[in-house]
């Protein structure tokens, strides 16, 4: 029980685990496992570097910089999730709708498929054009 108190005393004032640290540690472990199958010093070195950086983040006392890094990671993660969600929705709707761009302002417009030619009015610039669906 005394070793637990020593660890808690050592970790007081440290940044600790967050989502970025967990991702770095998991990626480091995956790279380490891949290095065993693929071989190669670079894959192994990348795994060790990711593990070391994750541990550095956990044990760091500079909370402001670690929090700033976490916010950058979360913003990048959010943009990637948004783009993948848009692609997934577009893929699911590919048979029912066709996406066209306005020739004037390049706004994307969703048109129903199978209607032959449609007169389309852009909701952004109010330009009218004809598109084949």
From TrEMBL:
Keyword annotations from UniProtKB, A to Z: Membrane, Transmembrane, Transmembrane helix
Domain of life: Bacteria
Keyword Transmembrane: yes
Transmembrane parts of this sequence: 23-56
Identification of the protein by name: Zinc finger domain-containing protein, LSD1 subclass
Record organism: Alkalibacterium thalassium
